[in-house]
Fold each of these.
Amino acid sequence: MSSSENYSGWLLFDAKEKVLGRIGSRVAKELLNGNSVVVINADHAYITGGKKDVVEKYKTRLRLQEKENPEHSPYWPRRPDMLVRRIIRGMLPYAKPSGKDAYRRLRVFSGSPSGLEGLKKIEVDTKKPKTMYVKYLYVKELSKLLGYTRE
């Protein structure tokens, strides 16, 4: 992911104030259709559900370890953009060549980097969190609760 990468022809999704599952499934569908996708403001997407339940679910995933060889255990990142990327990977057939190829065409950023002007922005319809759901948690908060300390 070098800074000199050319993003012309890529689709742009803004995850700010969007439900992560809805935007993630739409991104996965575009990737499987052969499009290259950039997701910005990943740390401002939110996950629905009670804070305690969501945090416990992801902490359980962090604790998973294979007894015979812990290096073969699944890895779950704590950084917001990498966490969103990993969640989208779960929506792709990652073990198949088509899924691996689709995953390579995905870029996720916390915030909005320069150089993305002129990209076709895809809008995903979701309601604002306060109007639709009683309980929700931003990805940024989740990362901090999982142990991410930078920022």
Amino acid sequence: MLNRLLGLLIVVASLGVQAQGTVYRCPGPPVLYTDALSAKEANEKGCRTIEGTPITVVQTVKPRTAAGAGAVAASGDGARSAEGRVDAGQQRARDDERRRVLQSELRQAEERLGASQKEFNAGQGERRGDERNYQKYLDRMAELKDNIARYEADVQALKREIAKLP
């Protein structure tokens, strides 16, 4: 929000110093406040004078740098070094936790895949009692086939993610 405001307002005056010439407010995105135009240029651009109107200069807050953020984190919990890197032991623990979660998800996805493949039975799944209408059976088989394709894709994606881990 602050950067947008500053983008819209370009002020030539600095804190505590009044502009020596006429200050113009020029329309259009971004709105421009300037004293660098001649009266003719200002008229051509549709600018109007703002004499007697106070000008407020907003100073920006400097963004935190990566080194500054690392130094703050290092003083806080000891998890990061002065360069902003995570401690090797903590990173290893994070990687182990991620591997454990991914392997758990992989087991669940493989179980869902196996159950769906068993029920699908190569397109020859058993009809249920509530499927007196043959179309209901065909719809269920189509849904099972779609689920199998999705579960296979999930299993492959999880295996790729696990392979990426150190």
Amino acid sequence: MQTTTPRRRSGRKWLVGVALLPPLAFALYLAFVLNWSYSSGERAGYLQKFSSKGWICKTWEGELAMTTVPGVAPVLWNFTVRDEAVAAQLNTLLGRHVVLHYEEHRGIPTHCYGDTSHFVSRVQAIDEHAPFLGAPVAPRR
């Protein structure tokens, strides 16, 4: 009888270890994709839409209208904001021309972190009255 008792305990330890392995692997994967960015950069355009969305997990989702040439339909870029301070700043800049600094995190397994893979970390308003530095230069004759 003494030989069967240690086997039961070791069997339980093995079963508990196997049961804890998938949640631990998922937690490590989630920590990796949330902290390691695939890409980062900036996007400029008009902040067209910004709202808090979700049934259970509320996230801040926005839409930036990027226009290249006046008169051409804008390209819409969707993004997510996790920082409440950045969300408050974006709410005050709705409808204005802004530059959004973002990081892209691919492979996030749930929508509780956002509907998109682009997470805005900083925003900068563009002064509408500043001269456009990218204006075309007249050709020489």
